[in-house]
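#dry-run=false #mode=assembly
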Amino acid sequence: DTGVSQNPRHKITKRGQNVTFRCDPISEHNRLYWYRQTLGQGPEFLTYFQNEAQLEKSRLLSDRFSAERPKGSFSTLEIQRTEQGDSAMYLCASSANRDNEQFFGPGTRLTVL
Amino acid sequence: KNEVEQSPQNLTAQEGEFITINCSYSVGISALHWLQQHPGGGIVSLFMLSSGKKKHGRLIATINIQEKHSSLHITASHPRDSAVYICAVRSTGTDKLIFGTGTRLQVFP
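#status=ok
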């Protein structure tokens, strides 16, 4: 499968715990995007990378959130001290360049108890 | 007011009907996307357009830049078209997408 993959697909955690999600983009796609989607809403932009450089972060990305793309390939999104309001679907997408369509992964559904 | 508005929010149709979903936006854009999301979360890109009209099978997307409006049409709708259809725009000067809240379509046999 050469599409965008995300792991894990589901994560249940207790409030206050740290969680980390991984996204593997389509090979050679230099742009990688993270979005968050809550029930009944459209996705919201969190951050994006061009290669290993993080070029933009949303105000939604509080200091508890951090994203990395150390070698310009896979990316991780970490949430520290999770809160119930962090419960959402976290989506990753990649594109070959700015003017190309984005290909989405299946998402990681986070539930914070 | 959201920067991207879709209508209707929910749509029910009989198989074979012609479907139209509308998207209006209030920001300057460099591209508009139509996406399809099935239950379980997977999102598929249907169209990316910056002007005019695109067609793929039974799907047609149009955009009017001056009126800041786009429509997605489905001809001869089928139950497998049942999904949430999301409009998203890439605003000028940025790479991020701004999404509408989606239109939930149900097509009954």
